[in-house]
């Protein structure tokens, strides 16, 4: 049976469907979820499963990054860290990892050896065993070197249910470090763009920060690692699932000057750039300072960037003209945006997720 391709005018999958933005969310919401339904009725980084003596977290991911080796990592290290970080977003300790390799004919053996060595080192560093796997080879020109699929299982030993359903109005919105480094590093690594930067990817495991947050006894409502689609996409997913508005302060969001300069040069939004070692955290406002003290032990750039609010319908009653100018949607009688950003002039605007990733094959 030949692989089907769409006829002219027929809707087809686009690269942007895999970018983590609004098209990705639409694909999941309108096609994939209706076919199967999310585990436990929740879309999160890992599914929670009942098990004797506690709960297990289960996640899977695929990695198609180009180039295979980039400043700060490679596809093998990325595959382990990406899966371990998904478990960490449920507060789970990793137990086991599967490894599926799709190799392209003509791949240098030395490249495969490097990737496998990275997987071995990172798995050992994260305390997770690679226990099963599979290998396939596709024809030259059909696989771009290496694609990797992983699945990971972890143990949940705390009593919290960490996810969007636990978010409440009044929660503080935190990030664990500066944003956008991974996306900019991948952009620079693609030689055809003619773009250079000394930045490296922020690729790093998030196990230790999450362990420290749990050990501090904090009431973690939601954790999300900021991968494809960046902060903007992640917060839209959380706001939609939690039924809240998230109001952010632009000046509080940590972005390295080199990332901001690169995004300004290329006309990109750093809040939609991919990250591979950053998380956002929502928890009660009264615990925000304690959480920041923990996060800053790992990254001094950790910050509170906003707060969760009740969803509300727009109203112009009682608003001054200056205040009305700060929210264009309220002027025309639309509900306020689920995620908004206030700049240094006090003007609040919607923070919309990108349609797709700025660049395909980012992770």
Describe this structure in words.
This protein has 363 residues and is α+β, with helices and mostly antiparallel strands. The protein is 29% helix and 24% strand. The protein has helices at 22-36, 75-88, 109-126, 181-189, 207-215, 230-242, 257-266, 288-295, 321-325, 328-331, and strands spanning 47-51, 54-63, 69-70, 73-74, 93-104, 129-138, 146-156, 171-175, 222-225, 245-249, 279-284, 303-309, 339-342, 348-350. A 7-stranded mixed β-sheet has the order 9-11-8-12-10-13-14. The longest helix is centred in the first third of the chain and has 18 residues, at 109-126. The two termini are 30 Å apart. The relative contact order is 0.17.
In short:
The chain is of the alpha+beta class and 363 residues long. Helix content is 29%, strand content 24%. Strand 3 (69-70) and strand 4 form a beta hairpin.
Low-confidence stretches: 314-335
Rough outline? globular
Structural class: alpha+beta
Cα separation of the termini: 30 Å
Q: Compute the gyration radius: what is it?
A: 21 Å
Strand content: 15-25%
- Read across the widest sheet, the strand sequence of neighbours is 9-11-8-12-10-13-14
Give me the number of helical elements: 10
Question: How many strands?
Answer: 14
Main sheet: strands, sense, barrel: 7 strands, mixed
Order of helices and strands: HEEEEHEHEEEHHEHEHEHEHHEE
Helix content: 25-40%
In round numbers, the mean pLDDT is 87
């Amino acid at each position: 049976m030949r692989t089907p391709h769409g006829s002219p005018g027929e809707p087809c999958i686009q690269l942007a469907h895999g970018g983590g933005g609004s098209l990705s969310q639409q694909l999941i919401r309108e096609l994939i979820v209706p076919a199967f339904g999310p585990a436990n009725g929740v879309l999160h980084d890992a599914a929670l499963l009942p098990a004797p003596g506690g709960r297990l977290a289960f996640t899977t991911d695929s990695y198609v990054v180009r180039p295979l080796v980039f400043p700060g990592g490679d596809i093998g290290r990325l595959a382990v860290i990406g899966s371990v970080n998904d478990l960490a977003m449920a507060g789970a300790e990793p137990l086991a990892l599967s490894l599926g390799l799709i190799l392209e004919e003509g791949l240098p053996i030395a490249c495969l050896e490097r990737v496998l060595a990275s997987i071995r080192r990172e798995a050992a560093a994260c305390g997770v065993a690679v226990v099963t796997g599979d290998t396939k080879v596709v024809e030259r020109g059909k696989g771009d070197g290496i694609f990797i699929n992983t699945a990971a299982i972890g143990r949940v030993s705390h009593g919290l249910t960490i996810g969007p359903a636990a978010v409440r109005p009044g929660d503080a919105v935190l990030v664990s470090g500066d944003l956008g480094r991974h996306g900019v590093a991948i952009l620079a690594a693609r030689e055809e763009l003619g773009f250079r930067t000394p930045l490296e990817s922020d690729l790093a495991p998030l196990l230790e920060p999450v362990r420290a947050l749990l050990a501090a006894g904090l009431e973690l409502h939601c954790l999300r690692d900021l991968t494809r689609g960046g902060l903007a996409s992640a917060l839209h997913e959380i706001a939609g699932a939690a039924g809240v508005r998230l109001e952010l302060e632009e000046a509080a969001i940590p972005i390295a000057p080199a990332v901001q300069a690169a995004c300004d040069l290329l006309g990109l939004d750093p809040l939609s750039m991919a990250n591979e070692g950053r998380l956002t955290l929502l928890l009660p406002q009264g615990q925000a300072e304690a959480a920041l003290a923990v996060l800053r032990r790992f990254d001094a750039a950790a910050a509170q960037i906003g707060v969760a609010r009740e969803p509300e319908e727009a109203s112009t009653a009682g608003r001054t003209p200056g205040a009305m100018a700060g929210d264009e949607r309220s002027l025309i009688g639309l509900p306020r945006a689920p995620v908004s950003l206030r700049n240094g002039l006090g003007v609040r605007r919607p923070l919309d997720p990108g349609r797709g990733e700025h660049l395909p094959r980012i992770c």
